[in-house]
Amino acid sequence: xxxxxxxxxxxxxxxxxxxxxxxxxxxxxxxxxxxxxxxxxxxxxxxxxxxxxxxxxxxxxxxxxxxxxxxxxxxxxxxxxxxxxxxxxxxxxxxxxxxxxxxxxxxxxxxxxxxxxxxxxxxxxxxxxxxxxxxxxxxxxxxxxxxxxxxx
Length: 152
Ligand code: SF4
Description:
Blueprint: E1 3-6, H1 24-33, E2 39-42, H2 44-47, E3 57-59, E4 69-71, H3 78-95, E5 99-102, E6 113-115, E7 123-125, H4 129-136, E8 140-143, H5 147-151
Parallel strand pairs: 1-2, 1-5, 5-8
Antiparallel strand pairs: 3-4, 6-7
Helix pairs in contact: 3-4
Bound molecules: iron/sulfur cluster.
Iron/sulfur cluster is lined by residues 6-8, 14-15, 43-45, 103, 106, 108-109.
């Protein structure tokens, strides 16, 4: 099994704020169930050309299914998010990934829940731009919160 994993969950300081979000449970699972060469690190926001750090972005969920992403300063970041999703998906597919563990709630990587675009910490149903691309491509996606159920 080859698994694409959000790089920030593996300790890479690639988040918008220049920090990582290392997850011990994800790391332990991968170390015991997946060969190191079968773990594919992806960070769609970096792959889309966003610098670290950068202002946080959210998907304007009131406009879905049209995908529009803005950062907190009002800049339209949609193109970077779409490019990053495509580059990350290409990397996962070229490596033969069938599964992914992605960072929950991120506008790129979130699965099932994302912030609503108002920058008020309001969660709504939805997927990040890259997560949606992975789902559309048939990759089984999960987050650090539910990967154990998805992989069982
Ligand atoms: Fe982590 Fe995904 Fe954000 Fe990159 S785009 S920092 S992998 S949540």
